[in-house]
Design brief:
alpha+beta; seven-stranded antiparallel β-sheet; 20 helices; globular; binds glutamic acid
């Protein structure tokens, strides 16, 4: 009787709460099945691997129409901003690494977000436990840094694109997807459910990604004509369409209305940076990766350098001895990361030392094969619990190689949607240490330390071999290094390398093993003294690797895509 007088919205929410509780119990008992097969592909002319089948196909269509790998990568990247709006978009930033066949050296385009001019090292309230007392660096306007996505992708297109296709042609597929809409997958529906609190704080965001406050479900469609119109305007006007004028004003007022400090000058002053990649070798293969403002490349190379002191092939795939070496390697790399790595435009990072073979030998000598070393130093791993982002790889028959990792930081970023423009602003301020005293403390214009590590691997003769990258916050470093080792040490195919069970730890805290790691390995590691946290099978915690590889005969291109996300490869 009393239920009859409850308003419809209340009833729906009540049912939803009960349903969620039952679902949570169900999930605890039985994991959602993951569609494992048919994600990889091979071709002779081109490969695009990304977190969405529709986006990978966009890239391949561009290659078919005569575009080069950068045209394809940029088209795929814009399409991902529409098709995977939880992970990246024009309100965010990232890194491109590119080596076209004619280039002697690869180049990194750093389009990482930067702190607004009014940002300060002590801009967030810090409690006695040293943590931010509210969520201001994660949710709302104060979490937003100046986006770099449009500047970075358009610079990549203008500088390295084939010029056979116009900006409008490269952006059109993304525009079309925004207008016609795309189906919600189980993965997206779960993410919306997980982020519902944040999404519902911002009505424009809730309007797009919920049904009256309830998460969109599998089979629902997301149509975003506002984003379509925004992208059309950027396709017409170029970078200035985003960083100046009407849209810039609307971005600023959305962020400031949500408590932020962003100004029109911040947007007008945003600069991409052209960086020299960090380089190293692993068992004769050349590793070319992302430098600061990302920590990624430095520590991927550092970890591989340490591993090189062990016969990983002989230690075996997934054995206790191999995972012990990985654990100790990660511990030391993450201790150095916390101490030394930050935006090199603001602090001096001992880059050569961190990536040197000699230093790695010294660190490798610290590893006792019988027992784990204590936590190398007290860090704050809880900061790194979230991780969204997206990564894509493109290779073509001409030997062009591109990897892009880009993000709005957490899934659905700060939650702040620019009204009538259809995109969400990042919460990248959360990647700074939110108080004074760290190399990674906030300064105006500084880029927060990233983990994004789009990476190229050349074979021992210096020829294209592999492109690889992943989302997953700090786990990116582990995922990228593990996939490289799986291919080089364990001779796995690229898809096997992507699918192999993952493991991750930082300098302190537990050793996280994916559920599919063998139980014998887990038990043996525990007996040695490792403290283990067992994560679920296919847990997106471990990232979502999208990679391309040219076989050793240099005839066939293979792509690997991650079932931990909605990854699919397209090829031709
Ligand atoms: N903000 C994160 C970083 O730059 C994005 C990467 C991720 O979380 O996956 O490291």
């Amino acid at each position: 009787m009393s239920m009859c007088i409850l308003p419809g919205g209340y009833l729906k929410r009540l049912f939803f709460t009960v349903f969620s509780l039952l679902a949570a119990v169900g999930i605890a008992c039985a994991q959602t099945p993951v569609d494992l097969y048919g994600r990889d592909a091979q071709g002779k002319l081109g490969i695009v691997a990304s977190a969405k089948p529709e986006a990978s196909k966009v890239g391949i269509d561009i290659l078919r129409r005569g575009g080069n790998a950068i045209d394809a990568a940029v088209a795929t990247a814009f399409a991902l901003g529409v098709l995977e709006p939880n992970a990246s978009g024009i309100g965010g930033g990232g890194f491109v690494i590119v080596k076209l066949a004619h280039m002697k050296d690869a180049v990194v385009i750093d389009f990482r977000e930067s702190a607004p001019a009014a940002a300060k090292a002590d801009m967030y309230p810090i409690g006695d436990n040293g943590k931010v007392t509210n969520v201001a660096n994660v949710v709302g306007g104060l979490a937003c840094a100046v986006p770099g996505d449009v500047a970075g992708l358009l610079y990549a297109l203008d500088t390295f694109g084939s010029k056979k296709l116009t900006r409008a042609q490269v952006m059109q597929p993304a525009i079309d997807w925004a207008h016609k809409g795309f189906p919600v997958t189980a993965n997206l529906s779960k993410i919306i459910n997980d982020e519902l609190g944040k999404i519902n704080k911002f009505p424009a965001t809730a309007k797009l990604y919920t049904n009256d406050g309830l998460p969109l479900e599998v089979g629902d469609k997301v149509k975003n004509p506002d984003l379509g119109a925004t992208l059309e305007m950027i396709a017409r006007k170029g970078k200035d369409g985003f960083y100046r004028g009407d849209l810039a004003k609307r971005i600023v007022s959305a962020v400031r209305d949500a408590g932020g400090v962003l100004t029109e000058e911040d947007l007008a002053n945003y600069q991409i940076k052209i960086r020299q990649p960090v380089t190293g070798t692993y068992r004769g293969y050349n590793i070319i990766s992302t430098p600061p403002a990302s920590s990624g490349g430095i520590h991927v190379i550092q970890m591989l350098n340490i591993l090189e002191n062990f016969d990983m092939a002989k230690l075996g795939d997934g054995t206790p001895a191999a995972l012990h070496v990985w654990s100790e390697t990660m511990k030391m790399a993450f201790a150095d990361r916390a101490k030394y790595t930050a935006d090199t435009d603001f602090v001096k990072v001992p880059l050569q030392g961190l990536t040197s073979k000699a230093y790695a030998r010294e660190l490798a000598a610290n590893i006792d094969m019988k027992k784990p070393m204590p936590s190398v130093m007290a860090g704050d791993p809880s900061r790194y619990e979230s991780g969204s982002t997206t990564s894509l790889s493109v290779m073509d028959k001409q030997g062009n190689m591109v990897a892009i990792t880009k993000t709005i930081n957490h899934f659905f970023g700060s939650g702040v949607m620019v009204p009538d423009a259809g995109f969400i602003m990042n919460n990248e301020m959360d990647d700074f240490v939110p108080k004074p005293g760290s190399v990674n403390s906030i300064e105006p214009g500084k880029r927060p330390l990233s983990s994004m590590s789009p990476t190229l691997v050349l074979d021992p003769e210096g020829k294209p071999f592999m492109t690889v990258g992943s989302p997953g916050s700090t786990r990116i470093l582990g995922a990228v290094a593990e996939v490289i080792s799986n291919v080089i040490d364990h001779k796995m195919s690229i898809q096997q390398a992507v699918m192999a069970p993952r493991f991750f730890r930082m300098h302190s805290g537990d050793y996280n093993l994916e559920g599919r790691v063998s139980i014998n390995t887990k038990n043996a590691l525990e007996a040695m003294g490792h403290k283990i946290t067992l994560k679920s099978d296919w847990d997106p915690f471990f990232g979502g690797v999208h990679a391309a590889l040219l076989d050793r005969n240099r005839k066939i291109l293979f792509g690997g895509a991650d079932p931990r996300r909605d990854g699919y490869v397209a090829a031709y």
